[in-house]
Amino acid sequence: MPDAVRNLIGDFLSYLTFSNQEVQSLFISLFLTFLISTIEPSRWSRGSWKHRFRNLSFKAMNVIATATVSILLIVPMVPILPRSDAVDSMWFSIPAMLRTFLGVLLLDLTIYWYHRLTHLIPVAWQFHRMHHTDFHLDGSTAVRFHPMEVLFSMCFVFPLSFMVGLPVVASEVYLLLQPVITIFHHADIDVGEKWDKIIRCIVVSPRMHHLHHSQDVRQMNRNFGIIFTFWDRIFGTYERNCEPETIKSGLKKFMDEEWQTIDGMLATPFKRGPSSPSGSLYVRKV
After folding, report:
1. 232-253: pLDDT as tens digits
2. What's the chain look like in SS3?
């Protein structure tokens, strides 16, 4: 075996260790999905477990995709990305706890805008829409992302994070928080309007995020937040959910069982959609 190939395999296996944040995120996602399934209405349905298995399969695929792109693209990219020493000095002049908190906020803001762009840019929407084809939201929907979209997000988020000197510990904290919050707000649960209102004062709640998964295009272009609700409020995309039973999730063109299989989900970006703005599967105007 050539040394280059051997080294690449070694790097790949080293990346996939329990110390890696993505792998930790995988196990957190698995644990929380099974935990929260015990209180979801569909918890005893045989079909619901098949649905969860399919969605969770993508989390496993995406850990491998993340490792691959990190080794082949992200690591070689680091030496050529611009980064000022003044930026590092600025971050380290801030107390550690505040530095981590600000870093988490900045990363959440970056991913908020990435999410909005996936609804605006045609090629990005083609891959992101796989996440929206789930017509039965539950905790596992939180990890239902096409591997190519995960690669797009890395190529968007990492260079920006690196150039602004985002503290590493902030990224680590974010990667641990993200699966907890996203599995919660995708879950097929309703905590009631009183508690939901309290929760969404700071973080994204189930009622708030379920509206984003509506088949209605206007509602789909609201509530882009990942962890915090600040960004939707600041940038005018916040909308309070009405009664959850009024929301129909999914995309009408992908309701058939063939698009809910693993093969079907992988093929979703390559299915042509309608072109009218009112029902477009490509460009969404916010």
Report:
1. 999 999 998 667 778 889 998 8
2. CCHHHHHHHHHHHHHCCCCCHHHHHHHHHHHHHHHHHCCCCCCCCHHHHHHHHHHHHHHHHHHHHHHHHHHHHHHHHHHHCCCCHHHHHHHHCCCHHHHHHHHHHHHHHHHHHHHHHHHHCHHHHHHHHHHHCCCCCCHHHHHCCCHHHHHHHHHHHHHHHHHCCCCHHHHHHHHHHHHHHHHHHHCCCCCCHHHHHHHCCCECCHHHHHHHCECCHHHHCCCCCCCECHHHHHCCCCCCCCCHHHCCECCHHHCCHHHCCHHHHHHHHHCCCCCCCCCCCCCCCC
